Amino acid sequence: MILVDLPTWPAHGRLWSHLASDTSYAEVHAFAARLGLPPRAFDGDHYDLVEDRYAAALAAGARPVTSREIVVALRAAGLRRRKRSRLAP
Question: Which stretches make up the DUF4031 domain (predicted)?
Answer without folding.
Answer: 2-76
